[in-house]
Design brief:
110 residues, mainly alpha, elongated, transmembrane helix, membrane, transmembrane
């Protein structure tokens, strides 16, 4: 009887602690790419609203687009893909606004 209490029940799932791992397996690289894309995307989106921050928004947007695309390529679960698309969208909007306000090298190289 004591041994039965020590063994985990067969119906209980083992969780990994990741919010985005719906298959209950760890995905460290897609999770890192997801968070980098999200943080850089929000930075690009917010800084894209200001004309004088075009260097920050265009470079942050470009980095967010590249990390988001690679994250989409290696992602495993739908949760990861959804969050990556949100980060990609905000990165793209920030990138395009930064390009419209002066671009990647606007005013620095000429």
């Amino acid at each position: 009887m004591a041994q039965q209490a020590m063994q985990p029940s067969a119906g209980r799932r083992k969780t990994t602690g990741s919010l985005f791992a719906s298959d209950h397996r760890p995905h460290p690289l897609p999770d890192i790419l997801l968070w980098v894309t999200a943080v850089v995307g929000v930075t690009a989106f917010i800084s894209g609203m200001f004309d004088n921050l075009h260097l920050l928004s265009s470079w942050a947007g470009l980095i967010g687009i590249l990390t988001g695309l690679y994250g989409q390529f290696i992602s495993v679960t739908t949760h990861e893909r959804f969050a990556l698309i949100m980060g990609l969208g905000s990165s793209a909007v920030g990138f395009y606004l930064g390009m419209a306000h002066g671009g990647l090298f606007g005013g620095v190289l000429g």
